[in-house]
Specification:
Blueprint lengths: L1 E6 L4 H11 L3 E6 L23 E4 L2 E4 L1 H11 L10 H30 L5 H24 L10 H16 L7 H11 L2 H10 L6
Parallel strand pairs: 1-2
Antiparallel strand pairs: 1-3, 3-4
Helix pairs in contact: 1-2, 1-5, 1-7, 3-4, 3-5, 4-6
GO molecular function: glutathione transferase activity; peroxidase activity
Catalytic activity: RX + glutathione = an S-substituted glutathione + a halide anion + H(+)
Pfam families: GST_C, GST_N_2
Length: 207
């Protein structure tokens, strides 16, 4: 059985959600963040030297990095929720699968650091928000053209996009002024598998 090393309020919630969508059996080992630093506990280094979450264990393997885990699970499930058959949709699927971590998460992390700097971080807040708004405007337009990020069907690319867009509501100004993105968030939150993953993973601040 797949074991998920799950850190609270983290990217690993997406892994639980995908497992529920795919119907793959799994167990959860939960980890709490340090209450002061909010970092992952040192126990995770016993599973993988980097001590980061998510991690999964399956068939004697330890697999790290959310995107790699998603690709592994999709393949294990016979490519369900994987790339659509149409070439353009398949390219969009791959793009958003990697865009979520490669392009969206770095500025969101920068905003987190800047906000923690208090007055020292104030000069950087406006430029970061404006830079990130370009991403949000583009994504709003993408969802005006189709129901889901890859095409007309829900895929694992939508799972990958969930975490940065959920954080964007709290940290980067995503609100009702971008109705297509907000509608997409409402639709993913309404999926039964999403609800089951929350039950398995525990409290999740970004849902």
């Amino acid at each position: 059985m797949i074991r998920v090393h799950h850190l609270e309020n983290s990217r690993s919630q997406r892994v639980l959600w995908l497992l529920e969508e795919l119907g793959l059996p799994y167990e959860v080992k939960r980890y709490a963040r340090d209450p002061k630093s909010l970092l992952a506990p040192p126990e995770l280094r016993r599973v993988h030297p980097l001590g980061k979450s998510p991690l999964i264990e399956d068939e004697g393997r330890v697999i790290a990095e959310t995107g790699a885990i998603v690709e592994y699970l999709v393949e294990k499930a016979g490519d369900r929720l994987g790339p659509p058959p149409h070439r353009d949709a398949a390219l969009r699927y791959r793009h958003f699968l990697h865009y979520a971590e490669g392009s969206l998460m770095p500025p969101l992390f920068a905003m987190l650091v800047v906000n923690r700097l208090g007055l020292l971080g104030r000069p950087a807040r406006g430029p970061l928000r404006r830079m990130f708004a370009v991403h949000l405007d583009w994504l709003e337009g993408e969802l005006a053209a189709r129901a889901w990020f890859a095409g007309e069907d829900f895929t694992a690319a939508d799972v990958m996009m969930s975490f940065p867009l959920e954080i964007s509501c709290q940290r980067a100004g995503l609100d009702g002024s971008r109705p297509n993105l907000m509608d997409w968030l409402e639709r993913i939150h309404a999926r039964p598998a999403y609800g089951r993953a929350l039950e398995r993973g525990g409290a999740y601040a970004y849902a």
